[in-house]
Amino acid sequence: MVFQQQNYTNTTNYEGFNRQDSKSFYPREYNSLSRICQGNDMKISLSWNVNAWAKVKQSFTKSIKSRLFSCSRDEAYKQLLTDVIGIVSPGELCAIMGASGAGKTTLLNILNFRNNQKVETKASVKINGIEANWDMISKYSGMGDKMKGLSGGEKRRLSYASEVVNLPPLLFCDEPTSGLDSSMAQSLIESMRKLADNGKTIICTIHQPSSQIFKLFDSLILLTEGRLAYIGPSIGYRVPNFFNPADHYIQTLAVSPKNKQIDSMRTEYIVDRFGKSENYARILYDIYWTESRPAFVEQDIPKYSANYLSQFGWLFWRQLKLDLKNPIATTVTIVQAIIVSIFLGLIFFRLDENEKGVQNRAGALFVIIMQSSFGFLFAVVNTFPSDLTLVYRESKNRLYSITIYYLVKQIAEMPKFVITAAIFVTISYWMIGLNDNFGVFFQVLLTIILCSQVAISCGLLLSAASPNIEVAIALVAPAVMPLLIFSGFFLNDM
Ligand SMILES: Nc1ncnc2c1ncn2[C@@H]1O[C@H](COP(=O)(O)OP(=O)(O)OP(=O)(O)O)[C@@H](O)[C@H]1O
């Protein structure tokens, strides 16, 4: 037998067995329930029992057959997870491991209610013995993502930092170390270790951790072909000399297409044997113990970790920094306004005060309005789609409210657009020679600035209603066209 279970017979008193080398794994009676919900320092025990299926594409004839003769569920569904039970306590750092395709990500997604809708589940996930739902999980947890895009290390660490900045009592991480070099991976898991030592409950999937990283974990869940091969302390099994334990477990549980039959027999044997083991019985007992004494789950944690004023302050600061880092966008807007206004001024230069001049004034005013409204509308229409992922993640992590984010966007961009509109109007107004009275000039200036603000709001509305930049830009024309058609139109009796 590849996995030799260590003998725990000296410590199998279920009322208070102990594991000397772990401060957090046993006994749950002391480390879990007694520490739950003390003040704001929320402690979470997560327990579960999960089955999951995915629809598999059938061949045409099979599909017709199953429709006609209502075949059993097994023929149309592949079982991804089978009776996977588990429990993770406060202060525990738990690794989910297994060969590729073993079901790690599927399990993690079901536990944090981010399940792919194509996967059907029959699952019970409980927080401190109370049936959990999406609201509860998102309130108490941080959910680390696989980061894509920029070069690995810093991006991934930033992602991790943004998830843990609020110190959620429950943290899910999907492959937090992949793409990191060994020293970065080590420091990331060490920081998780520290969080766990402060009472947080952390579950993560991990691929091929080094021996040093592996020993930072308290507990281990091993999956093979969607079934539970082991759950328990991370040092529960003997490993051959000079072997990395993680590599050994994964190799032992892997089912290769070449030796599918033999590998499957071996893994089934391991799973069956684990199902009859003392360790499995302990886990069942732990789950039973925790779930039969549901603990009060503190529901009234504040909606946001900072007050509205500081949310506003920090978001404003970030927006300013972003604008300063990217001065080209502002420069282009201002230079464009100068060029268009000079061009307009040259065409309509110093209009005469006669009949033609009146008609040309109407034309010039139309172009001024067009440029200072639709120009700005186009400038802001990509605002939200480009920020969507970041804003969604940050607001979900209770960093700030969407309303404050929107206000900041409006207010931080306002000076830029006010200055641009003012430059445009000043140059074109005096070149065209509309009216030499300064009072009239300021009235026109104020009107145009207000007009540009309305256009910006319309642009932001289109932007917020669009799932991506392409849709946002495509929506501008149908939204603007009716306004253009009605401009300068008077009803007969007016
Ligand atoms: N929506 C789905 N439809 C069909 N099969 C699916 C679906 N989602 C997952 N699977 C299958 O379920 C199994 C487990 O997938 P999962 O992504 O959980 O594995 P994993 O252990 O995380 O693998 P890896 O380490 O390669 O990321 C795989 O065989 C996968 O093909």
Automatic annotation (TrEMBL):
Keyword ATP-binding among UniProt keywords: yes
Membrane-spanning ranges: 328-351, 363-384, 414-432, 444-465, 471-491
Subcellular location: Membrane
GO MF: ABC-type transporter activity; ATP binding; ATP hydrolysis activity
InterPro entries assigned to the protein according to its UniProt record, in alphabetical order: AAA+_ATPase (IPR003593), ABC2_TM (IPR013525), ABC_transporter-like_ATP-bd (IPR003439), ABCG_dom (IPR043926), ABCG_transporters (IPR050352), P-loop_NTPase (IPR027417)
Entry's Gene Ontology cellular component terms: membrane
Keyword Coiled coil belongs to the record: no
Residue ranges of every copy of the ABC transporter domain listed in the record: 66-250
Pfam families: ABC2_membrane, ABC2_membrane_7, ABC_tran
PROSITE patterns listed in its UniProt record: ABC_TRANSPORTER_2 (PS50893)
Domain of life: Eukaryota
UniProt keyword terms in alphabetical order: ATP-binding, Membrane, Nucleotide-binding, Transmembrane, Transmembrane helix, Transport
Primary localization: membrane
Membrane topology: Multi-pass membrane protein
Membership in a protein family: Belongs to the ABC transporter superfamily. ABCG family. Eye pigment precursor importer (TC 3.A.1.204) subfamily.
Protein's recorded name: ATP-binding cassette transporter subfamily G-like protein 13
Organism: Brachionus plicatilis
